Structure formats: C-alpha cells, structure tokens
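U., I forgot to send this yesterday:
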Amino acid sequence: MLAVKATAIRLAMGLPVGGALGYGWHRLVGCSTGTSIDRRLRRSLLPLATARGDGASPLTATPLRGIGYGAVMGLLWATLR
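Result:
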C-alpha cells in the first residue's frame, strides 16, 4: 500500500513540475517569431527542433506545447526509479 502511495505522489508531482518547467522553457527559449533568441544559442539548446531553418522551435512555439511536452517529460521522469 505504501509503494502505491509513493508512486501516486511521484506521478502527481511530476505532472505539474514538468508542466511548469515546460512553460519556463517556453518563456526562456521559445518564441512566436523564431528570432527573439540568438540562433547559435538556439542551435546549441535545441539541435533537433530547429530543422525548419527559421529558428522557430515546433515544441515551444506555443505555451501549451511547452507545457504538454514538459508534463509528459515530468511523468516519464516520475516513473523512473
């Protein structure tokens, strides 16, 4: 019973923490125009997400994508032991 509660707590914390980190990533790195951050910095931070050539990241183009991606990453991180 205690292991189930610990897993539930980890999952319950992983979702909002991951979402908050995803939103923070959107605010710090993501942008609507693709030009608000130096392209060299963007290439070093998001090497796979800048394949469109204009520097815009498809993962952090909108806040909901950043939050969703962060939440999924938080859940994956929470399930690891």
